[in-house]
Design a protein that fits this description.
globular; Immunoglobulin-like; 4 domains; mainly beta; six-stranded antiparallel sheet; Jelly Rolls; 38% strand
Length: 655
């Protein structure tokens, strides 16, 4: 358990003796209770992102073994490779038989390439296995099972043990997730020709995270050399929901390998590029425009990795688009050996002008980072391009929208009848109406769904920035946590203010008051909104358990609460509206590089250039390859099974 501080004050021996003898004044007694008050981060009980996806895509089914990239059901052949960079949320069904793991780039720390398979104790819907959270119950957690791979022969020539077939992968315990212990394990099994699963490797859990470790396992038993060979990663873990995390990446099975070769001629984008904003992950665009230059970050930062055994001279290309128009396209040449062998490097790219944009909320800037070596594109391009968005909406946010943990006061504090307050500071750039506070509530170890609290807003906090007293300007009625897993990718719940609160420019604090000690379990973003220095605490977050506001000894990361400004509107709608198959499709990523996806199968899919000529066409497909398509603006035309036609713009970037 990560705590804000082990103890806010340490009592000296005399005070402890006096307390035990009950010879203590009321003032000292209250001070003693203050010393016991703690705030902590807890694991999350569910995965809101997967829950949102299931609600938004009620017809989704993981079609394991239904088809692979060659359009048939044949057993796979060597080589087998997946670094999960081409997957989103779930693993690729052309390579894997099940979808229990969570594909993401938020939970790992410095993975070999962006995106990993994260193992926890949640099912494919993001809910606890056996519908229970019980730290005293250990059982199977997630598994990841490969499609069958033909290890019997190649082109009619039988494989033998001398062909040196090996499976390799990288793994990491914990990462940004909640900690493991000795009762937890990650295991790897091989399937023999008699259908028996044989344990070939395992790792025990530990409380601390560590760097990704590379594992190479030779196939030394001829019983594995059959036409339906499979391998399976699985966990045995305490049933604690979205906790006890393991991360697996860069899975590679092939022949003619050597166990002492632990490198790959590959490089990749490793981390999500930072926000374009200096102090926030997002803010209202009208507020940004008050002083655009002061609100801009000094550079765009991201990490790139080198998996080879010699240094790489990596060049970077930066592209940005708004509403189909290009804002910038700049290439930055490489310095010699700028990423050392089997290492990573923080790269920074100059900021570009994003002021003067017109349109309604949200204003979304499509950002593309791509890398290459000495002007030559890598053989495996998928992990060399990262597409992300800079969003300007009606809220201020420090967080990236994904909670790795939950934050609140320690439920185990004794005595428990202590009031607690949390305040979260935002510098408001222009006069505007604050109409709502959005909070990301987690379900976790303790059920607090019926516990009451009050939202509060302050102009000043006593003892902070020379203020002599608290100046509270809003307090709600009693509230209880709301667990919202609707509205696309966000799981925030909304509290609408019952009064019009017009705020002039300046510092304000949003937060809550609770009557006694329990963990409200508000979302905690360990990545700090993908800040370049995420391993730090947010200096704008304060807590109070008695007389003094404090922001010392906070855990790394940031709280997930957001103030919303402007005209009141429906936020994070909790009512899910089922949509028919003829609903407007998804076209993503957009901009796209190597592939464009549509979220489900269509009778036909075509891409037209601006001259009305078809450049790519497919039938009965949920995606199209863009490998041979030049960069530029195109139109995607999709035809559903019911014969309805959809047209959407698509930007294709250079490979």
């Amino acid at each position: 358990m990560t705590t804000l501080s082990h103890t806010l004050f340490r009592l000296d021996m005399m005070r402890r003796e006096l307390q035990l003898l009950l010879f203590i004044s009321l003032f000292l007694f209250l001070s003693t209770m203050q010393s016991s008050a703690q705030v902590v981060t807890y694991p999350i009980g569910t995965n809101g992102t997967l829950g949102n996806f299931q609600l938004s895509n009620p017809e989704y089914k993981f079609q394991a073994n239904s088809k692979n990239k060659f359009g048939n059901k044949d057993t796979l052949v060597l080589p087998f490779f997946d670094d999960f960079s081409e997957s989103k949320l779930y693993p690729d069904s052309t390579k894997w038989l099940n979808n229990q793991v969570y594909v993401n780039n938020q939970f790992p720390i410095e993975p070999p390439t962006f995106n990993v398979a994260t193992f926890d104790a949640l099912d494919s819907d993001g809910k606890p296995y056996r519908n229970t959270i019980n730290k005293d119950l250990s059982a199977a957690g997630d598994s990841l099972i490969s499609q069958p791979v033909n290890l019997k022969d190649s082109m009619g020539i039988p494989y033998t043990l001398s062909d040196s077939i090996m499976l390799s992968f990288f793994y990491q315990p914990n990462g940004n997730g909640y900690h493991l212990n000795g009762e937890d394990s990650l295991r790897l099994y091989f399937k023999a020709d008699n259908n028996a699963w044989i344990l070939v490797w395992s790792a025990g859990g530990q409380a601390l995270s560590k760097k990704f470790e590379h594992i190479i396992i030779p196939l030394k038993d001829a019983n594995y050399l059959h036409a339906d060979f499979q391998f399976m990663f699985t966990t045995f873990t305490r049933q604690v929901g979205n906790a006890n995390h393991w991360h697996v990446d860069y899975v590679y099975l092939d022949n003619r390998r050597r166990s002492n070769v632990d490198y790959y001629n590959d490089y990749a984008v490793q981390s999500t590029p930072t926000s374009l904003l200096k102090n926030y992950a997002s803010m209202p665009y009208a507020h940004f425009e008050v002083n655009a230059a002061a609100n801009m970050q000094d550079a765009v930062y991201f990490k790139a990795s080198n998996l080879y055994n010699i240094g790489k001279n990596i060049e970077v290309k930066l592209e940005a688009y708004y509403d189909g128009n290009q804002l910038t396209e700049t290439e930055y040449p490489a310095n010699s050996n700028n990423i050392l062998a089997q290492s990573n490097a923080l790269r920074n790219l100059p900021i570009y002008n994003i002021s003067g944009l017109s349109g309604n909320n949200p204003i979304v800037i499509n950002r593309v980072i791509s890398i290459r070596e000495n002007g030559i594109v890598n053989d495996y391009k998928a992990n060399d391009v990262f597409v992300t968005n800079q969003v300007f909406h009606d809220y201020y946010a420090y967080d990236d929208g994904t909670a790795e943990r939950g934050f609140g006061f320690d439920q185990n504090t004794s005595p428990s009848n202590i009031e607690g307050q949390v305040a979260y500071g935002f510098d408001i750039a222009k006069e505007d109406t604050l109409f709502a506070i959005a909070t990301y509530f987690n379900e976790a170890v303790y059920d607090v769904s019926g516990r009451r609290f009050k939202y509060r807003i302050w102009k000043d906090l006593s003892g902070v920035n020379s203020a002599t007293k608290d100046e509270m300007i809003y307090e709600s009625e009693d509230e209880v946590p709301g667990y919202n897993i609707a509205n696309g990718e966000r799981t925030f719940s909304t509290h609408y203010l019952d009064t019009s609160l017009v705020l002039s420019p300046g510092k304000y604090y949003i937060g809550w008051w609770q009557q006694n000690m329990y963990n409200l379990n508000v979302g905690w973003d360990m990545n700090f909104g993908n800040d370049k220095d995420a391993n730090r605490s947010n200096s704008n977050l304060y807590y109070k358990a008695f007389n003094d506001w404090r922001n010392t000894d906070l855990p790394n990361g940031t709280l997930m609460m957001r103030p919303h400004f402007g005209s009141q509107r429906e936020l994070y709608a909790s009512i899910h509206r089922l949509e028919s198959k003829d609903t407007k499709p998804s076209v993503y990523p957009n901009p796209a590089v190597n592939i464009v996806k549509f979220g489900r199968d269509y009778e036909s899919a075509s891409i037209y250039n601006m001259n009305g000529e078809i450049v790519v066409h497919g039938e009965d497909t949920d995606s199209l390859s863009l490998i041979n398509v030049r960069s530029g603006m195109y139109y995607v035309v999709l035809v559903s099974e019911q014969g309805k036609q959809f047209t959407s713009k698509l930007i294709i970037l250079a490979h």
